[in-house]
Write a structure and sequence with these properties.
The structure is a single chain. The N and C termini lie far apart (40 Å). It contains two helices and two strands, in the order E-H-E-H. Helices cover 26% and strands 8% of the residues. Strands 1-2 form a two-stranded parallel ribbon. It is globular, with a radius of gyration of 17 Å. Helix 1 links the parallel strand 1 and strand 2. Helix 1 runs parallel beside helix 2.
């Protein structure tokens, strides 16, 4: 298994490689789609989510309300990094590989926000003490 591998500290492997492996094995945990533990984790982890709140793929019938707003994206980003997680944001392309305008707009907005605030995100460290009272 990965946990006993002599190279486990030099490669990155998630926990999505077998039934029952979620949150047990790998260099970082994904545990579930849209994973939000809510507290600082002792193991590296990732919050994998998609711009379309209903699907990981392209949906022709999607309406604007189905897509995460910039406020929602930034809130999920802040929550993820505050607990020491990696933030993976997915876009579901069309059958021929195009990114729809709303998804492109969200990525451009996030890029613009990061160009101003990126230092605070990329240089962040997880909480060492949590008290949400």
């Amino acid at each position: 298994l990965y946990n006993d591998s002599p190279v486990k500290d030099t490669v990155v492997v998630n926990d999505r490689w077998g039934k029952g492996c979620d949150c047990k094995h790998g260099g970082y945990y994904t545990c579930a789609d849209r994973y939000d533990p809510g507290v600082l984790q002792t193991h590296k982890w990732e919050n994998a989510l998609t711009l379309d709140s209903q699907s990981w793929g392209y949906r022709r019938e999607a309406v604007l309300a189905d897509y995460l707003s910039m406020e929602e994206i930034l809130q999920k980003l802040a929550i993820t990094i505050s607990c020491g997680g990696n933030f993976l944001l997915n876009a579901g392309p069309t059958h021929d590989g195009r990114i729809t305008p709303i998804m492109e707009e969200r990525f451009r907005q996030l890029g613009s926000w990061l160009s101003v605030n990126g230092e605070a995100i990329y240089g962040s460290k997880p909480w060492t003490y949590q008290n949400d009272t």
